Amino acid sequence: MEAVRPVGFVVRDARLRRGWSQTRLVSTLRRVAARHGQALPTDASVKRRLASWENGHSTPDEFYGSLLCEVFGLSATELGLSHLTGHDVALLDAVYPVGTDAAIATVDRLWRADLNGYEPLLRAEPSEPAWSDASLRWLVAPEASLPEPRSDQSPRVGLTDVAVVKATIDVFTRLDDQFGGGHARQSVIQYLSRDVVPLLTGHYTETVGRALFSTVAEAVLLAGWMSYDAGHHGLAQRYFLQALKLAQDSNDRRLAGSVLSAMSHQATFLGRYTHGATLARAALMGISGVATPTLLAQFHAMEARALARTGDCRATETALSEAARALDRADHEDEPEWITYFNDTELAAEAAHCFRDVRRAREAVASAENAMSGRHVRSDFFATMVLADAHLHAGDAEEACRVALDALDIGEQLKSARCVAYLSEFRRHLESLGRSATLRGFTEQAGGSRLWAATKRTAAA
To answer: Are 177 and 223 in contact (CB under 8 A)?
Structure first.
């Protein structure tokens, strides 16, 4: 086994590979610390610490260790700082933040731990009590005040800065849609950690602050969706919790409701159907005074998705009918920009999922065939796989396999644990029918697919 190199050697090698002097590294550490609203002692003091680390006389603590990881782009393990992971144990508690400052501090630490590859966090399971606690505390929370700037060195933030964050997150949203959450997730987290945290601790008016917190809440919500799609479910839940708090602090109840809807989606996916339905209902209740038709439609659809998994056909039909009636009243000019994606095609996709789950195969096929937009790669993959499942439930295994092969073509570019989960479910249903020429032919054709190969690894695990 290869010996673990002392952290000092790793730090020195990382510095020298970049051609940096100790003075250059100290300057870079100071700049990164300032981004996080932190001030370092004098250059001489930091240089003494650095010399002590590189000579093996001491080891960086959690604060300096996280800065070094960010500066060098290395994980804590790669830098020889795995002994510090115990200091991040508080991040494993999925709790709704008690205040705005706590939300900023927690999301900052989450981003850094995520970038540093903190394995207990990446492997964490979601907390069921956290779903209930978050929805209740959001529903009854008073309007929060924005934080005070932490230091005179904090940057001044204007609406232009907010617009830059929004435009950047829009780019990442398109990448997520086209290539899956596993594609650019780390890039999103790095951008938020390095460029957005300093804005949250900066100087801004109340108007700018509300806009900033709403935009950052959208960004953290995206981080949650991408983490969920990549299979990091506990981490995703923690991002959703922070997004909910930031949306509350921005007084954006519509966006906060959308965060609860995302939590509902995840809970249903993970088999916590009662929690999924409850979270969707909490979202509906929480935006009752500011609801728009499209938001109501999307939240009712999430409720239907959860109810369908329980097998409650009548309640599912009722929720879908409410969603359709709401969407008929929609006027996209009066809707938040981030919900305008939800249209008749998206509702058809949700209905297809529901009808498949309550074993109404004909309705599932009809809905899934109306759910292909040609614009959203991952959504089209899901709809196509639901169509394949629906044909399988209808007794047409040959057509099911043909459609599943279409899905594999659509999803070949996607890095998504959810896509693998859809395929794994289809594989179980198909194999339950026993060996057949149809099954053999399908597995031969699917054998070259990266996503199909991943279902084998999932089954082996």
So the answer is: no
Closest of 405, 421, 433, 415 to residue 459, by C-alpha = 421
Residues for the chain: how many in total? 461
**Residue 222: which of 280, 268, 181 has the closest Cα?**
181
> Is the pLDDT assigned to residue 244 strictly greater than 90?
yes
156: β partners = 203
C-alpha span between 301 and 199 (Å, rounded): 35
Exposed, middle or buried, 443 (CB in 10 Å: 0-12/13-18/19+)? Answer: middle
Dist. CA 383–CA 369, nearest whole Å? 8
Domain 1-92: CATH architecture, name and number where available: Orthogonal Bundle (1.10)
Question: What is the full DSSP assignment across 361-392?
Answer: HHHHHHHHHT---SS-HHHHHHHHHHHHHHHH
Could you tell me the two tokens for 452? 């199909």
Q: Which residue has the tokens 């695990």?
A: 461
Residue 157's closest CA among 172, 146, 144, 170?
A: 146
Alpha carbon 359 to chain centroid, angstroms: 30
pLDDT at 421 over 50: yes
Whether 368 and 405 have beta carbons less than 8 Å apart is answered as: no
Distance CA 104, CA 179 (A): 29
One-letter amino acid identity for 182?
G
pTM of the predicted model, to two decimals? 0.82
pLDDT tens-place string over residues 299-342? 999 999 999 999 999 999 999 999 999 999 998 788 999 999 99
Q: In Å, what is the CA distance from 386 to each residue of 135, 229, 392, 425? A: 30, 17, 10, 10
Distance CA 89, CA 104 (A): 18
Alpha carbon distance 87, 271 (integer Å): 32
Domain boundaries, the chain: 1-92, 97-251, 269-342, 346-461
Token pair of 87 as six digits: 């200091």
What residues are paired with 203 via a beta bridge?
156
Residue 203 main-chain phi, psi, to 5 deg: -95, 130
Cβ contact 214:255 at 8 Å: yes
What CA dihedral angle connects 322, 307, 226 and 180, to 10 degrees?
-90
